[in-house]
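Entry type: protein chain
Record version: 2
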Amino acid sequence: MATLDTLKQALRQKAKASSPKQPLSDMEYSAGFDTLLRGSGWRTYQDFIIPQISQLMAPLFNSGDYISALEIGPGPMSLLGHLPSCLRQKIKKYTAFEPNDLFASRLVESFCSTSETESPLPCLRNPPNIHRIPFGLQDNIESGTSSRMRENDEKYDIILFCHSMYGMKPKHRYIERALEMLVERPQGGMVVVFHRSGTLHLDGLVCHRTASFPTGVVSVANDDKVLDCFASFVTGFSMQDVDVDKAIQVEWRKVCRALGRREEVHPDHLLFSSPNTMVAFTQHATMLLELVAQVPLVTGDKRVKNRQALFHPAVSIVRPKDVKQIQHCVQWALKHGVGLSVIGGGHSGHCLWPNVVSVDMGAFDQVHILTAGEHGRELSDLGSLIIAEAGCKTGDVILKSMEVGLTVPLGARPSVGAGLWLQGGIGHLSRLHGLACDAIVGAVVVSVDSSQVLCVGHVPRQHWQVGAVRPDNEADLLWALKGAGTNFGIVVSVTFKGYAAPTFSIRSWVLPCSDNLRARFWLEKFDSIVARKLPRSCSADAYLYWDTDQLHIGVTMFESSTTRSTLETPTPTLLSTMLGPEESFRVMDGVELFEAEMYMSGMHGGHGGGKTSSFKRCLFLKRIGAVGIADILLAAMETRPSPLCYFHLLQGGGAVGDVAANATAFGCRDWEFACVITGVWPRNQDGTEAAQSAVQWVYNVARDLLSLSSGAYGADLGPDPRDAALAVKAFGPNRLRLTHLKQNLDPRNVLAYACPLPKTPMKQKLIILVTGESCAGKDYCADVWVSVLIAHRSLTARAVSISDAIKREYAAANGADINRLLCNRAYKEQHRSALTTFFREQARQRPRLLEEHFLNVVYGAADVDVLLVTGMRDHAPVAALSHLVSDSRLLEVHVQAAEQTRETRRGCHGGDGGSNGSKDSINLTALDYRPSLIFDNDALGNEAAKDFAEHYLLPFVHEDLQRLANMVGQISDFPRLGVEFRHVLNISQQPGGLALCTSLLQTHFASDWTRVNAVACCEAGGYIFASALAARVDVPLVLIREAGKLPPPTVSVVKPSSYILSLASNTSKEKRIEMEQDVIPKGASVVVVDDVLSTGETLCAVLQLLEKSGIGAEDITIMIVAEFPVHRGRELLRQRGFGKINIQSLLVYGGA
């Protein structure tokens, strides 16, 4: 998909010989801008610009003072007017520079509130000051709507360059001018720039924060008139001569149609990539000279291998020569509130980042070997040690170590550096000795909190830096360095445990596959034999690639031995038995091994000669031969954008899995293959659509595999928002501990561009699905609830509409105005019927449409604590979707209103503020399930919605729930290997645990305890919590036991084995459970309490027993201590007729 920049260059090239040209009129520019935002163009604002503004302004809003704002080029509507209401109300002064007279008039009009519409900034103390001229570098300006003023008399908390900086040259001068207009209070103000397409080159300005949105897309109708308008807008001019202009328009249409991408879903539209960048500056933006006066700049070779990184123009690269200069870098960053990136081997895609200072560790390039006995008595138990400084490459370390007969299990590429070792390091010795990070026993680190030099773990005395100290949290820091080490300090050197250097034999096979069936056969065979039967001294890699018009599977087996003679004569192996005679057999040492990779010479003529560029993401898989995974891999090969793209499957297991998941920060241990998804393109196509397509292909495949994977490899991940979903699974069970360590060890987020860790201490995201009738006010309520959550708990919260995705597709397919469709009530009502029909047809064609849209919304909000999702069109959404986000708590709040109220809102253009046209009216009593909560939204104003949030939503983010969660023990490999057991009953064994749990069960009950006649529970776990709860609320306790343990007469049903018992024994059988007959009167209200909800089989038996005793589903509520959504217990209960029973759980966990 061509970018808007590529399109602009091509269009201007067509008009290069034509002259003279003229700037666009206000009307032409306005029409082009509206075309840009129509359809999918609004997504950039909804998913990127508005959330970024909200996050950046949070400290200002929390300060308690009023906010003054200046918008430069806001267009027809203030960007700030799209913020949540609680944030908009803090803005008391507003100024704008909008030179387009049509836009300025519409902007003025938008601030004129009526009975039907609210002002975008409702709490301004004075009318908005809107200047109908460009923002300039001069001090004096004159407004078309106000008297003369001195620009330098005005000071602002926030200044926004809203829609790029086109026409402002040099750009850095305009930003410097804006910086002069910021307030000077303690917090200071902020200048924020949003720029479409391309990277901003801002000489010498250091950003406070930057973010990107690479997935922005513009959809343009493939219509002559629309394309004429759009092309002129993109180029920024038209021709003065009418005849020349018409001729150029014909050529421009051809260019648009040649470069625009078409999709089957919307064949009559052209799609263009529109990446967006945000850069925020404070008054410290001009302080670079202070740093370079102390630390030398890099001249000449940047030592950066990653081609994507080279497209990120760092504001400067410094190369410290000693540790004191590294400390200067940290001290400077802390003083001015800016971030740093670090260059080790230069393979990371984020070692350079726009408008950020990079610290090149190239001067620290020494390898020191201490054989056993040379490093002092206190380290004698460790054997030989290898100290590698952070500027070394893997090849350097292996070469130096081999000189004394040693090695380290580093990665398989000679040019990678410390970033890989600190974040994993998968190589051909991993099965025998573990990952590179497992061999780390110590490190020297410069703290990014204090700038102190820290010695962590086992560092020989002769390699301590002058003034170095041991940190108080040394054990935690060493733990974090072993798997997530780029996040917690600038590492100066790493101490590895040395191993005897082996010799390797390498055997290779290439298997042509006539079709996918044959390829699947080989993947299954490779999986079943390699993953389970090869000895640890062997590792086998597979490559899935296309060559000479045929799919191939290439296999290489590496066998290591410290005795060369045992390898020199080839002997039959498991692989040779399966695959036949190998095509090649070689014996070599650890340095020669680097050249033995199949990608270097065996595929496509070799990828190692500098002819190609690549982009990679890696996921960990248990079974590559499983039908779902094999299908994804083979289907992806069919859709690869370049013939050079391939999959590299590296064998794991062995020593990698011997290390407990929580023993190091590298928490992804349960995998047999690391699947490296590799997009490749010719190097001369760097930065082109070919490169972008290969990158997006990698992300698409990673997205498809993610739910089937055991985790993602964090070494590749960075600030790209497409990495957010992968980062969630990058550290297994260690993610939350790492979050707390990040807050303690890097509280100012100096290392903001490493593998992303969650920024908030909340252990669990709360996702609230806001459903309900048309015009009930769902979006309005969601906005109110966001305000309450932000105000009461210092949380990050966001409301998004899942239906916006289908609205954008509908608008693109039918030519509807997406802005009006999203924001204008009357316009939405006009399209309601057609939109519903369109959605149903799309759902028919795409069976997983709901899941796709839901996950896109969740992954797009990975950085928030509470996500409110409106626009749901699904049935029983909690039961249907909770397994997809099993680590999050999912609630449904059903908003309802009387028919008269909804009719009134339907006729009011904006009075509802919330209906999104997501569904027709529904009868709540006709549903076969029960929403988590129901809100009656008939009252005027927002007080009822606020009260509801305070009474029913805030308890789900209360710290007492986290206290309770901390009492649940986690036990690995129980009741069998590979299971992470959550010891829920451990709550009762903790001081105050049972009382806390009982109190929470009582307060979280959504109904009235005075109407409850009995608390029922099934042995044994439920007894503990149910008995305490029954005593607390003074309600009789009804016992459900195994058959034969209660006196007759009884009522009984069959109960299958519980999930945990089925794990513990393969011989578990069904049992009968019973309760005393007539112990509960017919029609009584019953609360069923249990410790766990997993598969739902036990609860289903309990409900069948109650049903048999005359208790209807409408009279039952279920209270659970801990729920495990991945097992889909709610869905099982719904399918068996118990969907109308309200299920409430205190805790939610992923996994078993």
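Comment: Residues 140-152, 908-922 have pLDDT under 50 and may be disordered.
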